[in-house]
Design goal:
- This protein is of the alpha/beta class.
- It is built from 13 helices and 11 strands.
- Strand 2 and strand 3 form a beta hairpin.
- The protein is globular, with a radius of gyration of 19 Å.
- The chain starts with a helix and ends with a helix.
- 42% of the residues are buried.
- The chain binds guanosine-5'-diphosphate (GDP) and calcium ion.
Length: 303
């Protein structure tokens, strides 16, 4: 899972009875800022599952205040582009102190989940520091956060790379979770900068290919639109169409089944022709119940 798409899906999935859920989360968005380690997708999922996220803003904590940010601006000038709320800062301080004391990120995530009463087995894709870099048409590669948050994806890009991936190892329980799974689900997260970056950690894609469990994905694209976020900008940077079929083709061999939006059901035969079982259903995660029905439908495709 990535951040918000993954989180919305998980809030539905966990309502289904008798599931034991392990979640592997993207680290590509991670960034060091003001001496603190920020892990946006991990925190998005944790805050959402804890019922603590700001559903309107789409990131960070609800009922947030911005005192620290304002005081930082006093010292640093007004040109800050990466804003964090006070409650959010507490998370980053807590995490960074533990990291500096030598505690692995996966252990810190477990501590966070315990504090918030989350009973899903949440894990980072890797305990190593990695970051997604965006290769611009003009000039150098920049951090994904700078491309998305500072420039609102307005700078033309030609590719996305996970810096540090070669040396990164999957976090301790990642490969065993994949191996032990009865079903592997690719939630409707960004296929390039969320799921795509998880798959760049050496060993993870191979483990999914080798796993006994079949793989079902839920399309993050509905009728040529990414619902929210920048999936369309990422796909077009790679010369790919923004469609349910194009994302299925991008995942390729990984998928046994692909659930697409009912409004896209004219694409069912094209996807079936790729050798992937395809069905359509309403895919807007308007609330937890809607997300639960999507999750149940996806699971049902391979049962
Ligand atoms: P991020 O890390 O916060 O960008 O979150 P993800 O990578 O997990 O997911 C972002 C993607 O989720 C968006 O680009 C959308 O394509 C997808 N998404 C968000 N809401 C919905 C929804 O209601 N239905 C579907 N099918 N996809 C959604
Ligand atoms: Ca993200």
């Amino acid at each position: 899972a990535g951040g918000i798409g993954g989180a919305r899906f998980l809030k539905g999935l966990r309502l289904i009875d008798n599931l034991e859920i392990s979640v592997i989360i993207n680290n590509g968005d991670d960034i060091n800022m003001h001496g603190l380690r920020i892990c946006p997708d991990l925190d998005s999922v944790i805050y959402n599952l804890a019922g603590e996220s700001d559903l309107v803003r789409g990131w960070g904590r609800k009922d947030e205040t911005w005192v620290v940010q304002a005081q930082l601006a006093h010292y640093l000038g007004k040109e800050q582009w990466f804003n964090l709320g006070d409650k959010d800062y507490a998370t980053h301080i807590y995490r960074t102190n533990l990291l500096n004391a030598g505690v692995a990120l996966s252990e810190i995530v477990k501590l966070q989940c315990t504090k918030w009463g989350i009973d899903l087995n949440i894990m980072p894709a890797t305990n190593d520091y990695v970051e997604t870099q965006v290769q611009l048409v003009q000039g150098e590669a920049i951090h994904f956060q700078e491309w998305w948050v500072k420039h609102r994806a307005a700078l033309p890009a030609t590719g996305f790379k996970l810096l540090g991936a070669e040396k990164a190892k999957p976090a301790p329980e990642v490969l065993s979770a994949i191996e032990a799974a009865d079903l592997i689900i690719l939630p409707p997260s960004n296929p390039i900068v969320s799921i795509g970056m998880i798959l760049q950690i050496p060993g993870i894609k191979a483990a999914i290919m080798k796993a006994k469990a079949p793989v079902v994905g839920v399309s993050p694209i509905i009728g040529g639109n990414p619902v929210l976020g920048m999936a369309d900008k990422c796909l077009s940077a790679l010369g790919l169409e923004t469609s349910a079929t194009s994302v299925a083709a991008q995942y390729g061999d990984l998928l046994d089944a692909w659930l697409i939006a009912d409004s896209d059901n004219d694409q069912v035969s094209a996807i079936t022709n790729l050798g992937i079982k395809c069905e359509s259903a309403p895919l807007l995660m308007t609330d937890d119940q809607a997300a639960k029905e999507i999750a149940a439908k996806a699971i049902g495709m391979l049962r």
